[in-house]
Amino acid sequence: MQLFLASLVFVVTLILVIWQPRKLGIGYSALAGAIIDLLLGVVNLHNVLTVWSIVWNATFTFVAIIIISLILEWAGFFRWMALHFARLGKGRGVRLFAMVVLLGAIIAAMYANDGAALTLTPIVVELMLELGFTPDTSLAFIMASGFIADTASLPLVVSNLVNIVSADYFHIGFVSYASVMVPVDLVAVGGSLIVLYLFYRKVLPTSYDGSKMEVPSSAIRNRGTFRVGVLVTLLLLVGYILSGTVHVPLSVVAGAGALVLILVAVRSSQGVEVSSSTSVEPREPSTVEIRRLLKEAPWQVVVFSLGMYIVVYGLKNVGLTQYLSMVIDAMAKGSPLFASVGTGILIAFLSSVMNNMPTVLVGALSISAVPVTGVTHSILVYANVIGADLGPKLTPIGSLATLLWLHTLKRRGTDISWSSYIKTGFVLTIPLLLLVTTALFVRLVLL
């Protein structure tokens, strides 16, 4: 009976999270499920404390990174980068396509997949309009920017919320994680570029008129925040690397960077700084804008992480994760390559139907119950991350980043149907998933 109730609560909670009723949102939808589990006795207060110990660092790190992304976007940093990358296209359509993909990979790596979805998508839409591309061509660039946001979110612990959750759960340091996943991510980015090109090559333009684009410097809206933002980004990377040595949580490092940028943005100016080559109407005072940006930060993710993971922990309490452990254990007893590819595909499909946020913890809880050590255990841990990062591209409900990306596009007049997305997602994701999980095997076993 408890198994049925826990499963029912999970399904209903997931439906509410995806549906996102206005009065609840993702956070309170998940919290409602957690409260129901508490009332039913599926979880207890000790479980709540256990879940909080797992997710607090990941959640606040993620929120801090998104705040940094929003402030940098407000300062014009990402549009400045996009214009520079667009100029590297040198008038050739295929080259511009590659530059957009590489830009998305860089943003996803440093500012998380949700940061890439929030900042890059509007810029790509605007760029397509400025260059006068056809709807089919524009859709190719837009889909590429959305696809790469998740597939390139492997390299660093901070590149994806599920990465942070998994690294915290298995006590993997920033440098140790990067030493494994940076090479794997290079394969993921290269593979993404190839599959995206093969899929969209017929609609890519042979050339474009670069003179239609504004000069990169004109994109800078607030020079003070822009300059400090570049410095903060570099210092954050150093801080992440040192965090394991000095035993400082990543959330403290990212939070310090966010706080510095907030203070600088507020003090930088009461209006807006622009280059002399542009004419921009004065904007609201920066203090007002920063308040708006902070309000737009994903604070509900804090509540969502706690609520959703409590619901998932309820599944563990009633024994549901034991079945997944049995499947993973069977794959682990095979070859290391089979363990990597099999676990990655399994977690990817689970992520595509039940969202990658709960899936990564379900996977972690299941893997921790599998009696393996050494390289096989490492393969399972990292394959779980790969599946949770790439799997969401199979369906629109696979990740919050994808839902956010689709919502952003719809607001800007581009409506992508779920059927169209799923058809494209399967064609693009399956070969990439096989390639990247194989690359993980090579990295951990052969190198």
From TrEMBL:
InterPro entries: Arsenical_pump_ArsB (IPR000802). NCBIfam families: 2a45, PRK15445.1. CDD domains: ArsB_permease. Belongs to the ArsB family. The lineage of its organism: Bacteria, Bacillati, Actinomycetota, Acidimicrobiia, Acidimicrobiales. It is found in: Cell membrane. GO terms for cellular component: plasma membrane. This is Arsenical pump membrane protein. The chain crosses the membrane at residues 50-72, 93-112, 132-149, 161-180, 186-203, 224-242, 248-266, 297-315, 335-353, 360-384, 421-446. It is a multi-pass membrane protein. It comes from the Bacteria.
